[in-house]
Amino acid sequence: MNLFLQPRSQPLVIAHRGSSAYAPENTLAAFQLAAEQEADAIELDADLTRDGHVVVMHDATIDRTTDGHGSVADLTLEEIRRADAGTWKSVEFTGGRVPLLEEVFEAVGQQLLINVEIKGMAWRGNGLEAQVAALIEKHDLLDRVILSSFNPLALRRVKQIDSRLACGLLVAPDLPFYLRDAWLAPLIPHLNARHPHHSQVDRAVVERFHAQGLIVNVWTVNQGSVVRAMVKAGVDGIIGDDPVMIRQTLEPPSGVFDLGFTSDSSGGQS
Question: Quick check: is 9 in a domain?
Fold first, then answer.
């Protein structure tokens, strides 16, 4: 059984784009640090280069998180790999590169569970889902990976490729109403999870999804007070930039009163 879907006594700690509060998001450094900080899982974003390689990148362009420029879809892997993906965060990460999804699987696939977000809202696929599925199979990670997307048709394609792959539908309060309210969820056969923004969740919502056989992983939680609210709501996983804060809020050291303060906000994009 997929490890994301197993019953547990407290929510999974899922490091958003790796330990992105401390290291450059969606880099091997961020994913390896999440493992060192004892996160249960990482969340990352997968997209396809012009020459058909699956890279880990949240934005449609590489401009924000590297010193390079251009659209992922318009650049080759070689062009993307020339860009420095670490210096923008801190000089200690200078020389970091945009990783291949396969490199992440090789580095931490047996240490952490992995939530792979399929990027893009196109009605027709570009082959990304099939390539991600093939990499999961190649690295024997079927029970350690869940695929998520805001695009229900992408998850439908995933299930058509391999119905065993676990899938979670992302939703956000600022999406068009038919996506915000998941009108197209019935198009996804055997959907396994819902991934709403934390502001969309309370105990009644979680109980309704649980009654449908779905787990609930919420994003992006960067305040201790919100962690505690999500625990009370009964969620199954908490996605946030700071896995240390989430873990300490879930398991405070003996004698320490956690005020839930953090330097970051409670919002963010998946």
Answer: yes
Whole domain around residue 58: which residue ranges? Answer: 3-250
Strand (E) or helix (H) holding 239: strand 237-240
Q: What is the CATH number of the domain that holds 169?
A: 3.20.20.190
Q: Note whether 179 and 153 are within 8 A (CB).
A: no
Domain assignment of residue 43, yes or no:
yes
Q: Residue 256: inside a domain, yes or no?
A: no
Provide the greatest CA pair distance for the chain. Answer: 55
Which residue is catalytic, options 16, 139, 197, 198? 16
Q: Catalytic one among 58, 139, 195, 197?
A: 58
Contacts of 36 (CB under 8 A, 6+ apart): none
Is 58 in the active site?
yes
Q: Give the separation between CA 139 and CA 136, rounded to whole angstroms.
A: 5
pLDDT tens figures, 28-67: 999 999 999 999 999 999 999 999 999 999 999 999 999 9
